[in-house]
Amino acid sequence: MEVSGILYLVGTPIGNLEDMTFRAIATLKQVDLIAAEDTRHTGKLLHHFGINTPQTSYHEHNAFKRVPELVEKLLQGMAIALVTDAGMPAISDPGVELVQGCIAAGIRVVPIPVVTAGIAALTASGFATQYFGFDGFLPTDKQERRDRLEILRLETRTMILYEAPHRLLRTLADLAESLGKERRISVARELTKLHEEFWRGSIENAIAYFTMHSPKGEFTLVLEGAAPVEKTTWTDDVILMELQNLIDAGISRSDASRQLAELADLPRRQIYQLALTL
Question: Which of 172, 173, 153 has its CA nearest to residue 163?
Fold first, then answer.
């Protein structure tokens, strides 16, 4: 009878090596194999902490091939750790397909958490943290990008984005156009590293600042949520007032009733009956 192994999702530092946890080091030493996004990059980390566990590559370009191979090793009883270049696997990094494959095969998946850029930037943003969302990198496809920006425009939660330095100004310009220049934003750069920096203010001012200061390093953007839209309570008095405004503007009683019925999501007959009292 085969004994299933365990897949460990091991978080690694996003910059400062002192953020590496004791549990992560112990796990990487004890597993049979480390599946790494970049074996050369991870090799430096392993050498720093005296870890000699063998590696195999696992990244977005070979995931289709690697997933069944790793699942088979896990089903044979091996313990495997998945790591990426920085942070938690599967968060804007490879890993989702392997986790899904393990769950489908009944293999236990154990996360070994570490500092993540999104949460670190959120806590220092000064924005509300009770409700927040993570959007990662915006789509590069124009239509998908417009659709996502429209969702962000109405999102009332604090939202977290990632961006590369060469695309930062373009993204800020898109955010200004869709969300408004006055929307507040916190821009975190090189989190946990020597040149860690936070910039806070309006999107308009962020564009001005990073136009003057060439973007360098990896960026995490935290957007203040949109103000909740107050819903109109459509009492008879409110409806009559809106009807009168429309009629005064030269719109017929019938057309005014139709327009207001669509806006208030109420029966047109109900609105028209009130219009007849004017």
Answer: 172
